[in-house]
Amino acid sequence: MDCPLYKQLTSFVKTDQKELSEIIRFFEKRSIGKKEDILEMGGKCDAMYFVEKGCLYLYTVDDAGNEKTIQFAIENWWLSDVLAFRNQTRSQFGIRAALKSEVLEISYPSYQGLLANHPVMEEYFRKVYEIAFGAALMRFKFLFTHSKEDIYHHFNDNFPDFVNRVPQYLLASYLNLTPEYLSQIRKKATS
Amino acid sequence: MDCPLYKQLTSFVKTDQKELSEIIRFFEKRSIGKKEDILEMGGKCDAMYFVEKGCLYLYTVDDAGNEKTIQFAIENWWLSDVLAFRNQTRSQFGIRAALKSEVLEISYPSYQGLLANHPVMEEYFRKVYEIAFGAALMRFKFLFTHSKEDIYHHFNDNFPDFVNRVPQYLLASYLNLTPEYLSQIRKKATS
């Protein structure tokens, strides 16, 4: 079956067609329009999302009202306000579609049911979060060891596919740059 | 038994005394001196560490030779170069003891054996990494929504116990501040 989550599951853990078709019943397909919020800041974070097509991002707003992009999820990756979902508390973040997106949504009760009924999913999510946290450590390294001027070019050189998929103003925010600063850097680079 | 890892395991997952005593055999106790490296940058990352006493930190070095603190682990938490451990590649980080420390070390083959023989450890590490990644998202939020001036005070106010346990020059680096900048802020605060 041509399902991105099936493909990832079979590459991460040992399972079979019967179990895969049981696992997929815990999810619901959902379409999200470009710039549509799927979770509002301060709302109850009652779901996790697996991106099949498009791009979601997690954001927050600082005291001056500026939006800050905290995390992206492109195809084949997960997004949620992880602690709010885990603890069933109000979200510290919003989640929005950067592009028209297709996602698989899993609610909190379904997530608990999935883990209880399919222990192989403990292994799967252990690996998902291991990679997510390992990548976060690499991102701190990236942010802490490059100057503001360098960071955009280094990111561009290292992750060209990713850079091409996400709007530039969101990428600037993800690198903790203002849109104005990004615009200056890009003007310099092309002059 | 008075073992910090036992306590955490029984609070995170359902297990029993017999299994706990089997699980603990996969670990080795190790003492590390203050400022001693337990992993060198560029070395093979062949272990994960659970801190029983003291404090470890993960660091890297920028092009100008400045050390940057990427992550701390105080009592009851884990530390490793997660991606290098997972992929058995050379480490992007070093790991050093901020204070004289007692740790439980688990090697890569033992980690694999532990997970294969005790499926409950998949659930345990899924939860450990869920919390670690969720906390990393909160740290990005913290870094992106506070000015350099505010960040130290906010951190101090929110995590006083943590601030009291780690050397100030490492904390400055963890907040992406230079030691000189931290010193200026603290002088202002006390003047």
UniProtKB/TrEMBL annotation, chains A, B:
InterPro entries: cNMP-bd_dom, cNMP-bd_dom_sf, RmlC-like_jellyroll
Stretches assigned to the Cyclic nucleotide-binding domain: 11-115
SUPFAM superfamilies assigned: cAMP-binding domain-like
Protein name per Swiss-Prot or TrEMBL: Crp/Fnr family transcriptional regulator
Organism: Belliella marina
